[in-house]
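Slide 14.
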Amino acid sequence: MPFSFRVLSCAVLLVAILGLGQAALAKSATVQSPNGRFAIELTTGEGGRPTYRVLWRGGEIIKPSGLGFVLDGDNDWTRGFGPLTELNLSESNDTWKPVWGERSVIHDRYNGATVGYSREDGAAFRLEVRAYDEGVAFRYIIDKGPGGDTLHIASEHTEFQFTADHDVWAVTSAQGLYSKIKLSESRHNLERPCVLETAEGKVIAVAEAALVDYARMRVRRPDGSNTALVSRLHGPVVSKLPLTTPWRVVMAGDTAGELLENNHLILNLNAPSKISDTSWIKPGKVIRDVTLSTQGGIDCVDFAVEYGLEYIEFDAGWYGPQDREESDARTVSRRGLDLQKVLKYAKQHGIGVILYVNRRHLESQLDELLPVYKEWGIAGIKFGFVQHGSQKWTAWLHDAIRKCAEYGMIVDVHDEYRMTGVERTYPNFLTAEGIGGDETRPPHEQALANLFTRMIAGPADHTFCYYAGFVQDTSSHASQLAKSVCFFSPLQFLFWYDQPSQMSKDQELEFFTHLPVTWDELKVLESKIGTYATIARRSGKNWFVGSFNAVQSRDVKVSFDFLPNGKKYTAHIYSDDDSANTRTNVGIECREVTAGSVFETHLSKQGGVAIRLIPKY
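Slide 15: predicted structure.
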């Protein structure tokens, strides 16, 4: 008969006992989150298939779904297992402070359990599960394999059986174009986080956390099912035992914004910082020098000083053609670029210099580059076109980030890589691309798809292109200001194509001057994937709000009820204004607001508004 008890102060575990031996054998085990919102149930299903299911607010969002692997030589570890064993319980109710982030304090609160699955031929693994108030997560732990101390995983077969043919925001590459389709229409491997919308408007996400030395997981609809996704590893995994896999994560919320507000769950599933002294890690705003010249670099330094930026960056070409193995990233081969002169000038003005290095030269020269760059006084490296997905290149990348930390280098990883929370462990890893940023000219529909899917994974280098000519074709300048609030990155490239000599001194650039890149608090006020967003972020006592729109024009109401009661603020409002006699058509107004105030405006289908809120004393 069922037996239930309360674990410590808040965990709820329900266990159906079958018998007793050296270890209790359980038919099923259910772990609830501290507030009871989420629950994960573990059991052994038909044919001895290790199985889990997920409940949210008492309703099923993941039906009984299979677990397991196929090992090298078609050794099937998905069936034939007996009842659950080795029931160990855990819980957390801690807080921690990130070196940088979207919030100054993170609550790590969950109830957990570890259960064992085994069968008579010796096949065995443990499943560690955690139920958070923000979602559930589980990972496999394998202590021994069929032979020796090395395990060869050919494929992982983790299922996500949904309750209906939901809409899915499908994208097949990290920087690809999203399309909203029925799950039954999906034909390809989908990038994670994979976000689905139910007919009732609820939102579910499948994600991955703590990917360090394992093949990347994507998900694919299996043949014969219209309502499921199954894990698809980029390639095989070969590991010394014991092996602990990355976490598989399921989140759910009433709105897309709720998932974005809860994206710290991914960080909680990663190890704490391994960098003892993090004082040298400096987030900041960046301008890229597009001229690759001495004067261009000096101009960018002057611009950074004038507008409150912290870094300049030299991109591909400073050491030779990036696609040629014979190029040497230890030397400057660009004619007209005296890098040492720029570095000296930048240091005198308190501006850091970041260098782009293509993966070819990172792979072959990293151990030689780091001491050279340290001697030069380089602040960080932007990794270009890294190889990704396989276990080999996943492990290489994170080892490279660790090595950069040893030399005091911040890191920005570009192109197809997406974060899984490892930036908590190595906070010198400030940002990554893995997004179709502004250099790809995304219409607002794509930007708003990225915001509520990709951004669950962590920071994204959106490569803003403020003065680029195409901005007016796909966006607006007020929208660019708004997106700099909405898209979080502690290394924020604000001027990707822009040269200081060609930029006008528009007054709205003061918004970028005052804009923080790390925050104390995040609130998503409005959210609809691919359609609209309004996001408020706090830094100290100041608040910044960004709102932008897609699909069709609409009236927007921004309530300032997140402000403290009884306090007055000055709202600096930057909006699209065709009557503004400037190159960018951004109008600026100031007004006094309180927690009871509401700001109303009308946004075009590619419009936006940005607001800076400063307390009045």
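Speaker note: The two ends are 65 Å apart (CA to CA).
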